[in-house]
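Input record (one chain):
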Amino acid sequence: MEKLSLILWRERELLELLSYKLEVERLVLASGRTRWLVNATREIEDVLATIRETEVLRALAADEAAAELGLTPDPSLAALAAAAPDPWGTLLLEHRDAFVVAAREIAQLSEDNQGLLTAGYRSARATLLGIVGNGPEGYTQDGAAVVGAARSGLVDRAL
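The corresponding structure, as predicted from the sequence alone:
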C-alpha cells in the first residue's frame, strides 16, 4: 500500500504540473505571443509522457495491492479504498478525490486553450483572406468564414 500511495502522490504532482503548463500555454495564447507556443506545447507533451509512464507504475502497484487484499487485478481506487485497512482506505479516497478535481481543472484548461487556438486560427485566416482581396463578409454559426466575390483593391504605390 505504501508503494501505491507514493506513486499516487507522484501522479498528483504531475497533474498539478500539467495544470500549470496548460495555464502557461493559455497565457501565451491569450497574449498573442505565439513565438513561445511551440515551447509551451512541447513542455505539455513531456509532462504527458511522464504521466503515462507513471500510470504504468501505478497499475502495477495497484495490482500488487489488490493481490494483498484479495481483490481481482485492475481494481479501482474506490475498490482498493473499501478493502484497505485504515489509514490506507482514507488516504486512497483522498487521492481519488484529488484526481477528480485535477481532471476537471485540466479538462477546463484544455477546452479553453482549444478555444483560443481556434480563435487564433480563424483570425489569421480572415486576415489572410483580407490581404488577397477576398476578405470574409461574416461567419456562419460553426465559425467558418463567409467569403464574397473577389473585389478589386486599390494600392497607393506612392507611399
